[in-house]
C-alpha cells in the first residue's frame, strides 16, 4: 500500500537502499522532524529489531531529503503575510557558517539559506527568491530574541543535555556501560 502511493523517483531510490522502505522513511522522518542524533536512531531501530548503522541513516538522509523537499514543495501550505527575518551563525565541523531564515507569524518556515561566509548579495537573492515563491509579505520584522537573560538561561539550559555529559555519566558512577536510553532511565528513577 505504501509503495503504490510513493512518487516513482522516490521508489527507485528506496529500492536501491536494500532496507524495508518503511524503516528508511521512518528513520529519515524522525531525524528531520525531531532533535535526534544518528546514534539515537541507530539505538531506536535496534530496539525495534533492525540493525542499522548510524552512518547508513546519514546516507539515507543525504539521498532522500532533497527528494522529500521537491515533493513537499508542491504541497506546501501558503505562508502568512507577516514574516520575521533572522541572520545568525552556527558552528559546523568547527567552522562558523551563516544562516538566514524567514518565518511567518504562525512559525512556518518561509525559506532559509546556509552560507559559508556572510554575504549580503546572497542574502538579498535568497530574500527575492522567497518572495518569488511565496508572494510579497505585508510586513517584514527582525526576529525577536529572548526578552530577558533569566528566560534565555532557563530555556537554553533545557537544550544542553547535561544528563548525558561524558563527565557525569552513569558509567563512571556504576562501572558499567549503558546505552543512552538506559542512562536516561537510571538518572530519572
UniProtKB/TrEMBL annotation:
GO terms for molecular function: DNA binding. InterPro entries: DDE_dom (IPR032874), IS_Transposase (IPR052183), Transpos_IS6 (IPR047930). Keywords: DNA recombination, DNA-binding, Transposition. Residues 81-140 form the DDE domain. It comes from the Bacteria. GO terms for biological process: DNA recombination; transposition. NCBIfam families: transpos_IS6. This is DDE domain-containing protein. The lineage of its organism: Bacteria, Pseudomonadati, Pseudomonadota, Betaproteobacteria, Burkholderiales.
